[in-house]
Design brief:
13% strand; 4-stranded antiparallel beta sheet
């Protein structure tokens, strides 16, 4: 020791004390990770009881991600903090497809579609029974996503914690894991609940204190924990009063509000006034696309087509055996085998008492829902309103025979008694109340017989009643078209050809007799006018017909293999009866109607980029077009979901999308930019005609030379062989055009639809 430096002697007692205290602060992360893994695994096992069948592989993936986040990220942070942060973000992003969100959506940052899918699941969650055995992809997604949020929350606390973990941080990591185990127990009562609680207590004690127990004290610690657990198990029955100390259900006193559409399918004509936002109202898993029917409108009351029981067959309509029948012969066995399919319908953004199906439907199969036969065979009603989360499977028959087959079928014998109701119309008379309108049954096609008076004043002739009514001109038109048609199918085509010259509009004028005015005065209308006029002409010409109402096929989602149907897809069409096939669908509404125009792929992408409609997401239709064929009303329904949960979910998606934009490499090829352009137009809900080309699209943006230049650069790159890509200024101008008129939300939508690109390069 150097001179002048005093010597300090540490007492042996203090040295022993300092040595003994050292193990208490020694970090043993492997015990921490093992305890975390055991507690997480137990919680995920409890969470699996919320679904039937349990999503075992998805929850196993969540467990693997949580373990990698808690154990792997700290090792990477030792190399560099940025590396650890990037790895944490990547693991959290990976949780989205693991939980069931389409990787295609994550890859292309489809924020709107992802948020809508999660919102749909959250809306349906309060009405779902657990364990949930339904088929709603959205509900199953949010249930698994809830487990991922809790597990990854706890893992993130450990991932970014210091090596010496304090009680506060341990508690912060343990709370979400406790919720992961306890929440399912409040919804699905577990077997042996006190034993389950004892197991949870043991795992929690291991996580909180296992790392700090010295080897010599291990036996004593286990004994103390066991005694505490047994004491709790003994006291639990006395504490369990079967009534909650804190009622968590009261927390939803101010729930999130959700839009639910309801539809009155009866036709009323006149201008459309109800809003239609384009949000998904139902999804259908089906082998082939179809029109998803809600109701048959088989009665014309003198003004409108409405749903009602068909009139009883006239007493004179009897078979050779002398008995009256109103049952139509079934379709042929070969037709049923060819055009029958099983579909699965999941209701999301609407409430309906009618079962949505297609064509002729068998009785649906669903759990805890009763069904009754509708007014027409092949339609069904539910014993309680079907809302978000309701799901059922149903077998449907919807024939699509060829023209040659229908021409041949029209030459077969029609059953007159069974079809009498489908050839009947109520004809208004001046000065008479609607309840007293005469009911006329028109003669079969080319039978040479006059119409008959089914109900009305006996001193009036049926033909004179029709001729002198406001529909006399309609009857004359029907007889003229029918006389020039050799077969019923030819007559149907003649009516379709006539209506093809009429104009589609959502604002036709109000008329006392709307269908007569539509045919001879206004010559414009929407799906109600077109379908109502066609069904009237066909019945007057002797071809059995009716109006059907529901939805067109919607947009196919390749990731879920389902048809997503929005309120814009609500529609009305015509069904015509043919021997051997039954009711066959015909749609007289112009294809420019939004409910129909969305069914075709946009050629600029399908033809230029070589992509199928489902490859990059089928186009969405613009807001503000053909909506429901009846007065639809939007109401605010209580969804029972905390708004903070929705905000948190959207925030997670936005954060994930931001990271994905940085992490995922993007291609600047012409094909990739064309595909991106299609997605941008779809996301900003810009309507495109079915035959639009890049040149047409370039002219559409003539008001902005820079935006038009962006389209021109893509066109030249694709067709002219030029390797120059659009400039950043052109891309920015196009984004400004896409957001125009859409408000603040439109600005965000346009930003995500067409985000900035940092690097532009030339390619040969």
């Amino acid at each position: 020791m150097s001179a002048g430096v005093p010597t300090i002697t540490v007492p042996a007692r203090l040295q022993r004390g300092r040595t003994a205290a050292a193990p208490a602060v020694t970090s043993r992360p492997w015990i921490r990770l093992a305890a975390f893994g055991a507690l997480t695994l137990y919680g995920l096992g409890r969470w699996a009881t919320l679904l039937h069948p349990a999503p075992g592989w998805r929850l196993a993936g969540v467990f693997a991600l949580a373990l990698a986040l808690a154990g792997g990220v700290p090792l990477l942070r030792r190399l560099h903090r940025a590396v650890g942060a990037a790895a944490a973000v990547a693991l959290m992003l990976a949780a989205l497809p693991v939980c069931g969100l389409s990787w295609h959506w994550v890859r292309h940052v489809r924020i709107a579609a992802s948020a809508e899918r999660i919102e749909t699941g959250l809306q349906g969650l309060p009405g779902a029974l657990v364990p949930y055995a339904g088929h709603s992809v959205a509900i199953r997604l949010v249930i698994v996503l809830g487990a991922a949020v809790l597990a990854l929350d706890g893992a993130a606390v450990l991932a970014f914690a210091p090596r010496a973990l304090g009680d506060a941080r341990r508690a912060a990591a343990a709370v979400p894991l406790i919720a992961l185990a306890i929440v399912p127990s409040t919804l699905v009562r577990p077997a042996l609940p006190y034993l389950q609680g004892l197991l949870l207590f043991g795992l929690l004690a291991l996580f909180m204190w296992g790392e700090r127990v010295r080897r010599g004290s291990l036996a004593a610690a286990v004994a103390i924990a066991a005694l505490a657990g047994v004491a709790g198990a003994i006291a639990a029955p006395r504490l369990d009063q079967h009534t909650p100390w804190i009622d968590y259900r009261a927390w939803t006193a101010t729930p999130a509000r959700a839009h639910l559409d309801t539809f009155d399918w009866n036709q009323t004509y006149g201008p459309l006034h109800w809003p239609h936002s384009g949000h998904v109202v139902l999804s259908v898993a089906a082998r082939t696309a179809d029109y998803w029917k809600a109701e048959d409108l088989d009665t014309f009351n003198g003004y409108d087509w409405v749903q009602a029981a068909p009139p009883t067959a006239p007493p004179t309509a009897r078979l050779a055996a002398g008995t009256v029948t109103t049952e139509l012969p079934p379709p042929s066995r070969s037709a049923r085998a060819r055009w029958t399919q099983d579909i699965r319908v999941t209701i999301s953004g609407m409430e309906t008492g009618s079962v949505i199906a297609a064509g002729y439907a068998a009785q649906p199969a669903a759990q805890l829902i009763g069904f009754a036969a509708g007014a027409e065979p092949g339609t069904w009603t539910a014993d309680r309103p079907l809302g978000p989360g309701s799901s059922y499977e149903i077998s449907t028959y919807s024939p699509r025979p060829t023209a040659a087959q229908l021409i041949a079928a029209g030459r077969r014998r029609y059953p007159p008694a069974a079809l009498a109701g489908d050839l009947t119309l109520s004809i208004p008379q001046p000065g008479e109340a609607p309840s007293n309108f005469p009911t006329i049954t028109f003669a079969r096609f080319h039978s040479g017989q006059p119409p008959s008076l089914f109900a009305g004043p006996p001193n009036l002739g049926a033909q004179s009643v029709v001729t002198q009514s406001p529909y006399g001109a309609v009857d004359a038109l029907a007889r003229r078209l029918a006389a020039a048609s050799p077969t019923p199918y030819a007559y149907v085509q003649s009516v379709l050809h006539l209506l093809s010259h009429y104009t589609y509009t959502q604002n036709p004028p109000l008329r006392q007799y709307p269908l007569a005015s539509f045919l001879f005065t206004d010559r414009e209308g929407y799906c109600q006018q077109f379908s109502g006029a066609m069904a009237m002409l066909l019945r007057m010409g002797g071809v059995p017909a009716r109006v059907a109402a529901g939805f067109t096929s919607g947009t196919y989602d390749a990731s879920t293999r389902e048809w997503d149907v929005t309120d814009i897809d609500a529609h009305a069409w015509v069904e015509v009866w043919f021997p051997r096939y039954g009711w066959v669908r015909f749609d007289p509404t112009p294809v420019s109607a939004p409910a129909r125009s969305g069914q075709a792929a946009i050629p600029i992408v399908k033809n230029l980029a070589g992509l199928t409609p489902g490859a990059v997401g089928a186009p969405r239709r613009a807001v503000g077009a053909d909506a429901a064929p009846g007065p639809a009303t939007h109401r605010r329904a209580q969804a029972g979901v905390s708004p903070w949960l929705t905000v948190a979910g959207l925030a997670l998606l936005i954060a994930a999308a931001c990271a994905l934009r940085v992490l995922v490499a993007r291609s600047d090829s012409a094909e990739a930019l064309l595909a991106e352009l299609e997605r941008a137009l779809s996301r900003t809900r810009r309507p495109l005609p079915g035959d639009v080309t890049l040149a047409d699209l370039e002219r559409r943006f003539d008001a902005s030379p820079e935006a038009s230049g962006y389209i021109r650069a893509l066109r030249l790159a694709r067709y002219g062989g030029r390797g120059v890509r659009p400039s950043a200024a052109q891309r920015r101008a196009l984004r400004q055009e896409l957001r125009r008129g859409l408000g603040i939300s439109g600005a965000m939508r346009a930003l995500w639809a067409l985000p900035p690109r940092i690097h532009w390069r030339k390619t040969s």
